[in-house]
User: Fold this.
Amino acid sequence: MVSTWSETWRHETEVACLLPLAKRNTFLDGVPSGTGDERGVKGVRGESAVAELRAAVERNARPREPRAPVLDWSARAPR
Assistant:
């Protein structure tokens, strides 16, 4: 069972959302305007939260090392 109320779940889904986002920097840093409507993550949660998210996005964007092949035993000959 996966708890969708946990901080871990929130963080993982947020990072997954930011990976393909074309305007990621605008979302994280906000838009410098006088209206205050587009503060971004930095304006709401602070500099450390933005640094954490950027690090997580970079970690998840890197290609992963290939895993060992999974053996398919269903194709083997019957005895």
Notes: The helical segments are 7-18, 24-29, 40-45, 47-61.
